[in-house]
Amino acid sequence: MERRFLTLGIESSCDDTAVSILDGQRDVKADLISSQIKDHAPFGGVVPEFASRKHLEAILPLVDRALENAGVSDPAQELSLIGVTAGPGLMGSLLVGVMTAKALAQTWHLPILGVNHLEGHLFANVVASPDLEPPFICLIVSGGHTEIILAEDFGNYSLLGATRDDAAGEAYDKVAKLLGLGYPGGPIIDSLAHKGNSEAFSFPVPLRSSDEIAFSFSGLKTAVLWAVKDLKEKSVDLPIADLCASFQKAAVEALMTKVERAVEVTGIRKVAISGGVAANRGLRNALQRKKDWNVFIPPAIRCTDNGVMIAAAAYNGYKRGLISDLFLTPNPSWPLV
């Protein structure tokens, strides 16, 4: 019987500690996440130093549980590779994951591979969709990133366009804070948007008339700010659901307009989405309406940061001949391309 190729994946780039064990490219044996949302919610966003301390508390217990869930009793003999997010992200958070991975690799005498967090998001689709093969276009859209990547092959990527200012998820969080909805704002706004009238407010769609593949969300965020200010000056109760629906309509249209442009420029109609905002129902519905595209949408659990995507990217990279060493150092601004 052929020996299993088990990859231990570790993700700690921001505020989620995630550990997974993957057999080959897609067979998930363990998938654990320790979320810090409740810890950071009172601050309205992630506090970097606090996040690092919470990672320290969570990571080794998660590794132990992942090994148990996967039925691994002797990791030195049964594991084949350790993959860990090495950037981009918060330096302190990244350090916890990388140092843990290096210690385990040294103890168990296993190879280690540092993974780019954005490539990890791309591989969330690969785990979910056996039919997804390059070339394809991927919209990576999250709280910290909004960009369109052309995957000509695994490991061979081109940047087609990115945001000039706020990431889409960041804009959602800021609008939610403006409306007093709490943190994280994306899921809250998405839920309320489906109860509101998206035609109630005519918010601008950033860069809609430009042929450039680029995003900008600062103007849309400001438009919501002025609408709220105007309503308050008139002593009118804020129609929260309508504001959310109108904002989401403009945000989704801004994203879709540039994905459509990328398809037009490249001629590639195989389109994937990744990242936390990929769980947004408005965006998912808009993509599913593109019947002339071959669309790949990961399950919601694979959109947010997770260890499975890191293990999958590490496995693929290792099979392509990539390897790191015990001098691996996190890079908080590591670009995918």
Automatic annotation (TrEMBL):
Residues annotated as binding substrate are 140-144, 173, 186, 190, 280
- Where is Fe cation annotated to bind? 117, 121, 305
Gene Ontology molecular function terms on file? iron ion binding; peptidase activity; tRNA N(6)-L-threonylcarbamoyladenine synthase activity
Q: Which terms are listed as keywords in the entry?
A: Acyltransferase, Cytoplasm, Hydrolase, Iron, Metal-binding, Protease, Transferase, tRNA processing
- What note does UniProt attach to the cofactor annotation? Binds 1 Fe(2+) ion per subunit.
Q: What is its EC number?
A: 2.3.1.234
Report the subcellular localization.
Answer: Cytoplasm
Q: Which residues form a coiled coil?
A: none
Q: Name one GO cellular component term.
A: cytoplasm
Cross-referenced InterPro entries, in alphabetical order? Answer: ATPase_NBD, Gcp-like_dom, KAE1/TsaD, Peptidase_M22_CS, TsaD
Q: What is this protein called?
A: tRNA N6-adenosine threonylcarbamoyltransferase
Gene name for this UniProt entry: tsaD
